[in-house]
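Sample A.
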Amino acid sequence: MILTSCNKDEKIQTASLEQQKLDYQSRQIDLEKQKLAIEKEKISFEKQKDSLNKVAEEKEKERVAANNRVTKRSSTRRSSSGSSGGGGGSSSGSTASNSGSSGSTGTTATQKKGWSSAAKGTVIGTVGGAAAGAIISRKNPGLGAVIGGVAGGATGYTIGRANDRKTGRVQK
């Protein structure tokens, strides 16, 4: 009897070992399935990312082409207005300098010449705010000028930046 009971324990142990091996293999298969699903999602994400990048590049090319067309039209108009007279020698001289600088900045077609509205607004706001601050603060006009200049400059910049966005000089 002792021998048969020992054999039964071995059979149970081998059966449980086989069951553990099968459980382990099934868990391994589940892990491999999860890894495969993750890889599929990575691939689909990369495809979406690539297609979005292509769309963005096409839009950028269209925008640059449109800006180049606008730049060519405006430089043609400037050249024709400069050669028609009316403004004298200084007008044609400024036209030549503008057309020369636009050729050197062909890659950045959105860059405009002269002061931006934000810069103009900052300067005007700072000067006006400083003057108003000095007038309002009679006891300490220096401090009033500084505070008014800072507040006026910030306000002028904000208003000028909004104007630049409207005109298309800057994007966001």
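Sample B.
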Amino acid sequence: MVGKRGASATGAARAARRMGSEKMDAAASLLPREPRTERGRRTQRAILDAAAAEFGDKGFHESSIVSITQRAGVALGSFYTYFESKEALFKALVLDMSEQVRQLALPVVAEALNPVETELSVLTRFLEFAREHSEIYRIIDEAEFVAPDAWRAHYYGGASRIFARIKAAKERGEITGEVDEIHAWAIIGMNVFLGLRYGVLERDRSPEEVAAIANQLLQRGLR
């Protein structure tokens, strides 16, 4: 999914716990079994990647464990080594995708840019991600009904990370106005729908252009 698909579902849950929100507590219960060997990690990664493609193509209900393992090139028995059921795999996949989105922002945040530049870069990266992995929209939308705990964890986690970034910028004196959790949800809502419009439905504007125009709202608002 991201880069060489190095993110893991277990990493997603650890990230969720670090966020500290009560809404994220359910994430720990969604973990797959953690592999003990490098070979096991590769197998689990192959299953997650195959599940993303399968669920993205067919949806949850039309996909099967057999078709996922065939796509992954692993034995059916290997599936149950790491996941208890198709539902458990789907939940783990939602957390895995959430972790990959989280990873997009890490290099940007590490650069210690001002808040407007940070959100500009994060949005640009997300738009690029949405173009490459449009299946995330179908999977996250289905998660509202198939895996509601993972669905809530995905959105609460994203909003929590944005809120933490703008609060830190406020404490550094880079934002003069008050900041609120509502601001974080407004930003994540903008990002999600821009990704849908310019990453999935149509791609008639570049990610850089879309992010720059949308970022003007933050330039005027985060004062």
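B remarks: Residues 86-110 form the longest helix (25 residues). The two ends are 35 Å apart (CA to CA).
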